[in-house]
Design goal:
It is built from 23 helices and 22 strands. The protein is α/β, with parallel strands linked by helices. Among the domains are: about 50-150, Nucleic acid-binding proteins (OB fold (Dihydrolipoamide Acetyltransferase, E2P)); about 260-450, Rossmann fold, CATH 3.40.50.300; about 460-620, Rossmann fold, CATH 3.40.50.300. α8 packs across α23. The chain starts with 20 loop residues before the first helix and ends in a 13-residue tail after the last helix.
């Protein structure tokens, strides 16, 4: 065991009193190997034990209270139930007595027998024989040096089987090592942000000041105390520096030089079937500046459903093709890849460029032909799925990579495709609105462009909330809408019935829908279908031979049928706001009025109903994304795990969203003044600087 004065963060946990080989293994299994690891194990919450009450003043309020006195008359007995030990005692102070019971008390009896004065912290409850009692209260033994009793006591997440008072005592014994904990940031950085040094931050979290006021306690509870902000900032800065290093390395490499001359401008103008919106023109100008600048472009284009991102991307593709580069576009599903290929083929029909399709369903002969063309550059333009990142794909002159629905791909997949060229330009797109704080964090190595304007003539989709009682009225409305030339999507959360999920499955509902809509052709669409059958259903829907599609969320992205005017979402409470918005975006793509009808199940919670009401009242996708972040938290946003900050230990993008922008700005400053490598190295001792953002 090391003397406190010489205790260092790098010392083994076995340096601490009470940690032998067994506990060392238990802590190691929880990722705690050193004293420093223990110092960064933050309290889960704090219990206010500053205001102790007397036994005579206790009331049954359901809240925990602290009482100070002594315990007498302890009796330990074995219960009939195997393995259960019960310790009964009497707690007393000058104002009265109160019975106390512990079930399976580990070491409590020994500590109580050796203590003159204790503090019990627990919830008073009615005793069977009248009066009040405490059950399983926490015990703090009072001695002259124990400043934790009667203060704001830290309560920690358990480390394996280690928790409670012992863990608090263990961390208290580690606190002297803070004196030897180097601060990774230059002093001026936290000072400029009004944040404490690292030592002070950790000390105040583990051991809040006894005189902390109610405002300070509230900040602790909300994880917005200066100490919390310091640790969150450090972690976000470490992540931002990792992205800045990647960005800086990329900008040192020469990208494919793409010039835009008058001939390209005339061809682009002739390709466009309509005038670009001002937002599209602004984003296209940003892209052109990147393509002409020298370093490879790395840009994320965000745009609400129907805002025209693909047209802007097509203009970038044209510029790259006209400058002799190969262009590759990757989509997350074959359905979307085929639709992109068809749309680009129409858009490029008056040019020398025809996109090929590379996906899992492409036949062997055609696949070999495409692979050979990509390898010798005779195939300059291809749209595909994950098939594009297979080892067999060799690209001779890759100049531009376009990735649609970026949130469906992980960073490794993105880099695998980019790595098939020599510093190609990268353009990624998403129609899933991402709150700015999340976009700056997850895609901090990309420049951000936002298309925040819809094409003229689009009518907002009217959104209505209904329950099963309105189903007959809904069917009458659907028949009327089809009679007026509209087509219907009905979306379900499942493909087949499940005992664990009370939702109507697509295949179970087909017969009922056919009875409810006689004379209409109703077809099923889901991800497990044969690609040929799926294409046939969509083609029939576009032509009008099929009037109603019953689908799963396979239609969430990319399905573009202007004649579709009604989206019915069954069991809508099972979807997040952003996913609901994606589904709503499948209608309203023509000039006719469109509707989205969300059907609420009988078991929907009040929280879910409030979320749906917010959805119905908010047509703007970015406003909904912020609402989703606020109501559900980052870990659940859009249903894709990647939005959640599961890789952050201290930062919470819901709570610390404002710090994201600061961390990004400081990272760029450190990069520009040459301090990035030193600070990144220092921060890496405590925080990760690289994360793999998993695919959805």
């Amino acid at each position: 065991m090391t003397d406190d004065c010489g205790l260092r963060p790098g010392d083994s946990v076995e340096s601490l009193k009470g940690v032998g080989a067994v506990r060392s293994r238990q802590l190691g299994a929880a990722g705690i190997h050193t004293v420093g690891d223990l110092l960064f194990h933050l309290p889960l919450r704090w219990e206010d034990r500053r205001r102790s009450v007397s036994v005579g003043g206790i009331e049954e309020t359901g809240s925990a209270v602290a009482v100070r006195g002594r315990v007498t008359g302890m009796v330990s007995r074995r219960a009939r139930r195997r393995g259960l030990t019960i310790l009964e005692a009497v707690f007393e102070d000058p104002t009265g007595q109160m019975p106390v019971i512990w079930f399976n008390p580990r070491g409590v009896e020994k500590r109580l027998s050796q203590a003159e004065t204790v503090v019990l912290f627990g919830v008073p409850k009615s005793a069977p024989r009248g009066g009040l009692q405490m059950v399983n209260p926490e015990v703090e033994v009072v001695d002259d040096s124990d400043q934790w009793v009667g203060t704001l006591a830290s309560v920690y997440p358990t480390l394996g089987s280690i928790g409670g008072p012992f863990l608090r005592k263990l961390i208290r014994s580690a606190l002297p090592a803070l004196e030897n904990l180097p601060d990774p940031l230059p002093e001026a950085v936290p000072r400029s942000l009004g944040l404490p040094d690292l030592n002070t931050a950790l000390q105040s979290l583990h051991r809040p000041a006894p005189d902390i006021d109610d405002r300070g306690v509230a900040a602790l509870v909300r994880r917005r105390s200066p100490a919390h902000l310091r640790l969150a900032f450090d972690e976000l800065l470490a992540f931002s520096l990792g992205l800045a290093q990647r960005r800086g390395q990329r900008r040192l490499e020469p990208g494919p030089l793409c010039e835009v001359d008058d001939a390209i401008r005339r061809r682009a103008t002739s390709m466009l079937p309509f005038q670009l919106t001002s937002a599209q023109r602004r984003v296209l100008k940003e892209i052109v500046a990147d393509l002409e600048a020298g370093p490879p472009m790395a840009r994320l284009v965000q745009g609400d459903v129907g805002s025209g991102k693909t047209v802007v991307a097509a203009m970038a593709m044209l510029i790259a093709l006209e400058n002799g580069c190969q262009v590759v576009m990757m989509a997350p599903t074959e359905l979307l890849a085929k639709q992109h290929r068809a749309g680009l083929e129409r858009l490029f029909q008056e040019t020398p460029w025809t996109p090929e399709l590379l996906s899992g369903s492409v036949g062997t002969v055609q696949r070999r032909k495409i692979l050979a063309g990509l390898a010798d550059a005779t195939c300059p333009f291809v749209v595909g799925t994950h098939a594009l990142i297979q080892d067999a794909v060799d690209l001779a002159n890759l100049g531009l990579v376009v990735i649609d629905e970026q949130h469906r791909f992980g960073t490794v997949q993105r880099q695998a495709l980019v790595g098939k060229g020599v510093s190609p330009h990268l353009l990624v797109m998403t129609a899933t609105p991402i709150p700015r704080s999340l976009a700056l964090t997850l895609y901090g190595d990309l420049d951000l462009s936002v298309i925040d304007e819809m094409p003229p003539g689009r009518q907002p989709v009217r959104t209505e909330i209904r329950d099963d009682g309105a189903r007959e009225k809904l069917y009458r409305f659907l028949r009327s809408e089809v009679g007026n030339g509209g087509r219907i999507f009905v979306v379900y959360p499942l493909i087949e019935a499940s005992e664990s999920v009370d939702a109507r499955a697509v295949n179970e509902y087909l017969e009922e829908m056919e009875r409810a809509l006689p004379g209409l052709r109703v077809e099923v669409l889901h991800g497990r279908m044969d690609p040929g059958d799926r294409d046939a259903v969509l083609q029939g829907f576009r032509s009008g031979d099929v009037q109603v599609i019953l689908a799963t969320t396979v239609i969430e992205v990319g399905i573009d049928v202007p004649e579709a005017t009604v989206m019915v979402i069954e069991s809508a409470e099972r979807f997040g706001l952003s996913q609901l918005h994606q589904l709503r975006g499948r209608v309203g793509r023509g000039m006719r009025q469109s509707w989205c009808v969300v059907m609420v199940g009988e078991g929907a919670s009040e929280t879910a109903k409030r979320r749906l009401a917010r959805f119905a009242d908010t047509p703007d996708g970015f406003a909904l994304a912020e609402a989703d972040l606020e109501m559900r938290g980052p870990g659940e946003l859009t249903g894709y795990r990647q939005w959640g900050p599961s890789h952050f230990r201290f930062a919470d993008l819901l709570i610390h969203h404002d710090i994201v922008v600061r961390a990004r700005a400081i990272a760029r400053e450190l990069s520009e003044n040459g301090q990035l490598p030193i600070v990144a190295e220092a921060l890496s001792r405590y925080h990760q600087t690289e994360f793999e953002i998993p695919a959805g």
